[in-house]
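Job type: complex structure
Entries:
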Amino acid sequence: MQTNNQGVQVGIVGGTGYTGVELLRTLANHPSAHVKMITSRSEKGVSVADMYPNLRGIYDLQFSVPDIDALKTCDVVFFATPHGVAMSMALELIEAGVKVIDLAADFRIEDLAVWEQWYGMTHSGAALMPKVAYGLPEYYRERIQKASIIANPGCYPTSILLGILPLLKAGLVEKNSIIADGKSGVSGAGKGANVAMLAAEMSESFKAYGVNGHRHQPEMAEKMVDITGESVDLTFVPHLVPMVRGMESTIYVTLKENTSQEVIQRLYEEAYASEPFVDVMPAGSVPETRMVKGSNMCRMAIYRPAGGSKVVITSVIDNLVKGAAGQAVQNMNILFGLDERLGLNQVALLP
Amino acid sequence: MQTNNQGVQVGIVGGTGYTGVELLRTLANHPSAHVKMITSRSEKGVSVADMYPNLRGIYDLQFSVPDIDALKTCDVVFFATPHGVAMSMALELIEAGVKVIDLAADFRIEDLAVWEQWYGMTHSGAALMPKVAYGLPEYYRERIQKASIIANPGCYPTSILLGILPLLKAGLVEKNSIIADGKSGVSGAGKGANVAMLAAEMSESFKAYGVNGHRHQPEMAEKMVDITGESVDLTFVPHLVPMVRGMESTIYVTLKENTSQEVIQRLYEEAYASEPFVDVMPAGSVPETRMVKGSNMCRMAIYRPAGGSKVVITSVIDNLVKGAAGQAVQNMNILFGLDERLGLNQVALLP
Amino acid sequence: MQTNNQGVQVGIVGGTGYTGVELLRTLANHPSAHVKMITSRSEKGVSVADMYPNLRGIYDLQFSVPDIDALKTCDVVFFATPHGVAMSMALELIEAGVKVIDLAADFRIEDLAVWEQWYGMTHSGAALMPKVAYGLPEYYRERIQKASIIANPGCYPTSILLGILPLLKAGLVEKNSIIADGKSGVSGAGKGANVAMLAAEMSESFKAYGVNGHRHQPEMAEKMVDITGESVDLTFVPHLVPMVRGMESTIYVTLKENTSQEVIQRLYEEAYASEPFVDVMPAGSVPETRMVKGSNMCRMAIYRPAGGSKVVITSVIDNLVKGAAGQAVQNMNILFGLDERLGLNQVALLP
Amino acid sequence: MQTNNQGVQVGIVGGTGYTGVELLRTLANHPSAHVKMITSRSEKGVSVADMYPNLRGIYDLQFSVPDIDALKTCDVVFFATPHGVAMSMALELIEAGVKVIDLAADFRIEDLAVWEQWYGMTHSGAALMPKVAYGLPEYYRERIQKASIIANPGCYPTSILLGILPLLKAGLVEKNSIIADGKSGVSGAGKGANVAMLAAEMSESFKAYGVNGHRHQPEMAEKMVDITGESVDLTFVPHLVPMVRGMESTIYVTLKENTSQEVIQRLYEEAYASEPFVDVMPAGSVPETRMVKGSNMCRMAIYRPAGGSKVVITSVIDNLVKGAAGQAVQNMNILFGLDERLGLNQVALLP
């Protein structure tokens, strides 16, 4: 059972999907947080341990109907909901002093016109945007500390931004020709009943998808511009890998001028030297998604093939941890002034 | 990094295989144990984090050549070695007051003639056998507390003995016709280069193996006799599942007389009521291996199909955790009078 | 493209699922059959090659609304439909001289009271039953030749009946204690949107299911009685394997008296000596599901572990081929007096 | 059994690996070819059906010691050997009038200095190069017809060259910035015992490899130059997918000037209109590797994301068929004036 009921009081809205169970898994061993309530309209009264038997004996908690007054008794509310839900409840919560961490996309893109185009709905939370921080701690930690609402980044943006930003910030590469080739395990598609995600359909097969446009492209492009102050041209193609968890991104950029592999390697090592959840592997290493499975780490390696003008970065995360629930807990730790690593000490499951 | 160097001082002999890395993963978060040394003749000087990149940033430890004097400075030595190694070093260690936990098979079978027949080598440790306990805590906890050497059980025996012993002990079933149909993920075959275990060979395929005889059969049969005091006839067929981790056993027994499903269910629930790592699921549940992936739990369900004379038990474990390294740490905790659950609080990784 | 439009004119009702596409794959290279129409109410007008891109360039055929008059212009109609559909259309078809091959369960169980109990609907086809043959050619070939309707067997019954019937017919084993432990790839669950069959749910996991009762148990039990003339007690537990195709059954029986492995091996080899699609492997072989992937073969091996009283048979098929569409085509060949092997010469895809 | 012993008499040298068994699978149903001998020094006398049980009942053939005089009695000899073997035997064979098809890399790169650098051995076949054709029929069919030796292309080159050459030949894209991101199933790594290719190592994980340089890069670059007459700058990164068969390549190029998606789509459709084994899917389609599993097809789709300057091509093949043995048989058909499609009518296995 959760070993304490002290510390940060946590509410989770919409916890029946994979990010919900992953939040519960992560918070189960958090020494300074307590999951007080978890809501699901459809699963009202169901024990979380019945829906997720890996939690049998860990949580004695039932799904409840979402109730704004009950949620106001929490210190922080995570939204593991479809897009559009968090923006409808966030104002009332933050006015009550409750922090909001949205694992959906409601607050990820500052340009709401762009957001509305990609998500196909009206954005009702314009007034909230000044209180939002983009929850990529490695680049927005100070803003996160002061924010009321955290836009937890998408999984692809997490792996790709972490991989490319040191080079972009350093001004070493052409910004008009960035290629990011992303690959995700199937848990990224969520738990909805979907023929295309049946094991019989996607096992033992590999494919690209969303080649003509994916919602994570404008999210990444906006943050690249925000951080570097310059325009970028980013081509992004996601792919589906026949595995449950894990995400790998291979990023191709062109050097402006000759910069040695050693200089670039050092640039990355220094950029992330004090980051607990980014591991720049030694030159020549090969990041594999299993090296981060179940953990909050991002591991990456940097190459300059054949000493040419291209730099290639490969970056791996667990899409459900650093790409979702783990990063959300990292953001919670920052919001409440806790050690950023609390609850996030899981060692990756290898093999 | 390992957060303390206090507590039980641990040595690991032969840590390059899957049980070795799993010991390191489990002990990384153990609050009262410290891995002091890990040995491998072939990998001398290699950092464990280079061999197992999931441990990067967790351990600052190199493989060293096994040295008995150095090992004597430990409180406990785990052997994650091929069969035959532990028996050659155990005497000297226990005479120095060091506890030995063998994850190989050296001490699993008391009848050494049987052992020699199945393992194809001479057993040199007859004198040690009185100091050995079979490390299945749910049935041998008191012996474990007093032992110097722990024979950590095989993975199939763990899942099958836990599944069948309540019925056998209660004398409710025929002992002359027990069928155990076991299924294991491929990590059970170890990390040796073996064509049959290539992904291209065993992915997307399923097979039985060892049908004419498997070493875990005499191990199980002996413990069944030991615990019930009566002879048994056990047929055991293992199978290979195209997945990395996980083991499921489906056990078929015949009732001596009409006993209701409810009575049997209650028998199991009572048998394991105080066991932290055995979960008797409610009637009608379906244990899946993913419900225990990466955790030390054994989950099981009991059925009486069509109300007939057969009882079916299905039991799942993670073969590398409750079936190997996790159970070894549980045994260590017992040996040193620690809370049996220390270091073993990982929630199963689902999905 | 289908290379001829001569030969047996084939209609397929309900061809959008996995047995439908598998029928199309199998018939694509059949030298004496031509798929004339394929129906699906929901997919009317859709090209089969759009739904199943592996058929691009092979078939120039659209799904049409099922029309009984059109179907009567065929020589044979395959039903790849939910249970209950074939029985509603079969009478009119066979009266028009059209042969019916049902890949669903409508005609598999002669005892309609049992059928209704397991399938939860009223059986409207009692009058048809005398014209039905159970489509397991190795045991019912003569009846198939004369039948109007073929009840294509379930996948588990195909693999288990082929595996056990030589021993049962020979009277060598106890009939009151048969255990069949079956394992199926996920394509057996069909193409319906079903959360439990998502890749994220069932990949890298293994479980039993239907332990308290599965529809294939009464089907098998009835045929065992039919063929041996004696009652049987069959316990059957199916399991789900994280792979797309393939089925393995491990069958446990008890010898009445000492019969040598050699005698049993010879019994099997003789039983299937002239069968084109049953392969009794040499003693000591290990059937793997990949040895039959995509082919109509059933391969099996027979063991007598430790020379004891138990005989173990392991039997593998591709659940979609010999367990469904391939066997259906084999039955079609028999019905029309063709070489039974026509269209069924695919070599299993290994690796 | 092979149904005829007429037609082209085939010898296979080194048939114990995956391309060997795939040649046997493909040729089993070839109406105008007969496998006369297959050699393996290490497996001398072993039945191919014992090594590859999917071939039980299909071939009655044993591995023999390679004997040049025996091989001279064949019409064609396939080399499914390690690099370096074919070049040592080819001269004597072609002088005897025997055609040679090398599935290894001996003759793939015309620039032998480059070859020696990448393959780490001396090339002894310079005199043979004038008689070699690169066996990509879609671009070298006329040369193949006249050649004595066929250099069967690598798997990545097949999928990438087919995907990019229409655009390159048309001169529509920048040649100095081509990115090819390739992904291969594990069978591409062959059947050697290799820890990194164990199922326990690579299942449920994804990684790049060979980022700093892969042998298929110079092969592709040379053919791009050969066909377009201009220099190219190609960055190629291969990845390993946790599946057995299949290869997907995502290719990124930059348009020189605005060219509409429709024009590019038409260009591809026309380029391959008469090719039996290249399928340009309709705009908006998503090629998946399972759409070609077990078949000789290459399927591709062309995109212009967000109407920008980049064109993305995704191309899928079965690495063992169109990427190896199937293409080799296609080349054999061309060499002997047969219908190019003979023996290659397998429909992809989906699901």
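Summary: The domain at 8-153+322-335 of chain C is CATH 3.40.50.720 (Rossmann fold). The mean pLDDT of chain C is 96.
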